[in-house]
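Query form — protein DUF305 domain-containing protein

QUESTION: What is the three-dimensional structure of this chain?
INPUT:
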Amino acid sequence: MKLFPPPWLAAIAFAASGMAHAQPPAAEHHHYGAAPAADPVVRAYQQANDRMHADMAIGFTGDADVDFMRGMIPHHQGAIDMARVALEHGKDPEVRKLAREVIAAQQKEIRKMREWLAARGK
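ANSWER: The structure tokens for DUF305 domain-containing protein are given below.
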């Protein structure tokens, strides 16, 4: 004899599975409780974040390799854009050094990904 969970338990499990992927409302998502968007640093990070997420909304092909490369290019560009904000507004020498390293590394990887995609006509 098969035993099935009570309907209320199945409903809780179903609801919980969807909650794991829930996103906060747009206003909360962008501010993270930080300074208002009038702040030029916050605004610059928000713009970089918004651009990255919009550009990562690729049309998936089902080819894991192609989809990875196409999705990672805007992800890496987002890191570059954030590093540029840190260089423009930040003061800590360690953060500035890391930001420069991030820019160099991510640009190099973006070139490799674009070359890989071009070699495959993607």
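ADDITIONAL NOTE: The helical segments are 7-19, 26-31, 40-56, 64-89, 93-119.
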